[in-house]
Amino acid sequence: MKKQILGLAALVTAAVFFGGCKGDSDTIKIGGIFPLSGDVAVYGIEARNGILLAIEEINASGGVNGKKFELLSEDDEGNPEKSVNAYNKLTARDKVNMIIGSLTSGCTIAVTSKAQEQKVVLVAPAATAEAVTAAGDFIFRACFIDPFQGTVGGLFAANNLGAKRAAVLYDNGNDYSVGLKDNFITAFQNEGGEIVSNESYGKGDVDFNAQITKARAANPDVVYLPDYYNTVALIAKQLRAQGIGTPIVGADGWDGLTENAGDEVLDGFYSNHYAADSTNPKVQNFVKAYQNKFGSVPVSFAALGYDSMYLLRDAIESANSLDSTAIKNALADIRGSYVTGNLSFDSKHNPVKSAVIVEIVKQDDRLVTVYRATVDPE
After folding, report:
1. Which of 21-25, 160-164, 237-241, 268-272 is the least confident region?
2. Residue 10 has pLDDT above 60, yes or no
3. DSSP of 87-138
4. Radius of gyration of the chain (CA)
5. b vs e for 20-59, b when ≥16 Cβ sit within 10 Å of the residue's Cβ?
6. How confident is the model at residue 376 (pLDDT cuts 50, 70, 90)?
7. Contact 81/88 with Cβ under 8 angstroms?
8. CA atoms within 13 A on the CB side of 292
9. Helix residue ranges per DSSP H, the chain
10. Judging by beta carbons within 10 Å of its beta carbon (0-12, 13-18, 19+), is residue 335 exposed, middle or buried?
11. Four-way CATH pick for 147-272+356-375: 3.55.10.10, 3.40.50.2300, 3.90.1150.10, 3.30.2350.10
12. What are the extents of the domains in the chain?
């Protein structure tokens, strides 16, 4: 009887280790936390689609040692409190020890300390704030960080657009927006540019005319808008309505703008993680597969979700284990080629890779993005 009890305990332990869900030892469960509804739902839906595509490909090729992946998705609505609820459900109920998400920096930071304490490997596809990986060595990200992205925007505005006078509008309650703004200003000024207007607004604001009036009076030749696509669409419309026709520069939060704005965002440029019109075969294959499955051109969040899943797959294969400590150690040593670039991790588990600049243009009465430049890390 004692041996039978011990044997049963071993089976239960194995079931948890190999996926943690109803004894299905042939399935590796991956937790996912995404904004699938709310203001930034485009980010979450695209990232989840990218992950699902990667899982479909991986499973079709045999999985890892015959084990197939399954994604367990939770919607945090872009709300940090709901991110914590989603994390608790995935770890306590579903027993996952690997999570992809969330998408925004605030939502991701809300769960990183928990993940570190519980030794859950967490890969953030698109959370660019520096503090995301500060919780410890179980936290990784697939995207470059805000200082690099803000610097890219400043260099592009000064050197590629030839701008001398910049106006900045930013959300003073959003770490993402503030961090980008600070690094854009430093880079632009280092290139000899002048910040002629630096105006803030609050989360949820919809009327930006007071800030824009001040910016217009300063006569800028470029405007930097480091925010998410829904807010950028509102600001751009009001900028153009007040007669500011200068180029607008932003960051990866603009992804989704072409589906949610009009011609007011033309002459708009933003830093991004990949360009869908790249001639790189890895990118072309991904874009084709995504279009075949979902019927649309994938934005960067889809590519980052796709890469996040392949990073976990590669780490599990390298570690030859589903132990989270072994997986995080293998992740730290990864050096490989992915859709969003050649990638390795620095000591803080931030990826070392390039950024691209894309421009919003109109083709066949539709807004699309086209590749304009690549900026490499120093």
Report:
1. 21-25
2. no
3. HHIIIIIS--SEEEE-SSHHHHHHHHHHHHHHT-EEEESS---GGGGGG-TT
4. 22
5. bbeeeeebbbbbbbbbbeebbbbbbbbbbbbbbbbbebbb
6. confident
7. no
8. 8
9. 2-17, 41-60, 80-88, 105-118, 146-155, 175-190, 209-217, 229-241, 281-294, 300-319, 324-332
10. exposed
11. 3.40.50.2300
12. 2-144+280-345, 147-272+356-375
The model carries a pTM of 0.80
Domains 2-144+280-345 and 147-272+356-375 fall in the same CATH topology: yes
Distances (CA, A) of 211 to 111, 181, 185, 265: 34, 15, 18, 18
**Confidence class of residue 378 from pLDDT cuts 50, 70 and 90?**
low
Look-up of token digits 């703008």: 257
| pLDDT tens-digit readout, 47-75 | 999 999 999 999 999 999 999 999 999 99
**C-alpha span between 200 and 341 (Å, rounded):** 33
* Cβ contacts of 97 within 8 Å, gap of 6 or more: 20, 91, 119, 120, 121, 322, 324, 327
Contact in structure between 142 and 124 (CB atoms under 8 Å) = yes
Q: In the chain, what percentage of residues exceed pLDDT 70?
A: 93
Q: Show the tokens assigned to 6.
A: 């011990």
**Residue type for position 142:** A
| Residues 143 and 125: beta-carbon distance below 8 Å | yes
Preceding omega of 102 cis (within 30 degrees of 0): yes
**Strands 165-171, 366-375: parallel, antiparallel or unpaired by DSSP?**
unpaired
The pLDDT score that the predictor gives to residue 147 is 87
In the structure encoding, which two tokens stand for residue 226, read together? 């480091």
Taken as a whole, the chain contains a residue count of: 378
List, in order, residues 6 or more apart from 193 with CB less than 8 Å away.
154, 157, 158, 163, 164, 165, 166
- CATH classification for the domain delimited by 2-144+280-345, as one of 3.40.50.2300, 3.30.420.40, 3.40.50.720, 3.20.20.140: 3.40.50.2300
CB 72 within 8 A of CB 5: no
Backbone angles phi, psi at 110, to 5 degrees: -65, -20
C-alpha span between 375 and 79 (Å, rounded)? 32
Tokens of 256: 């989704």
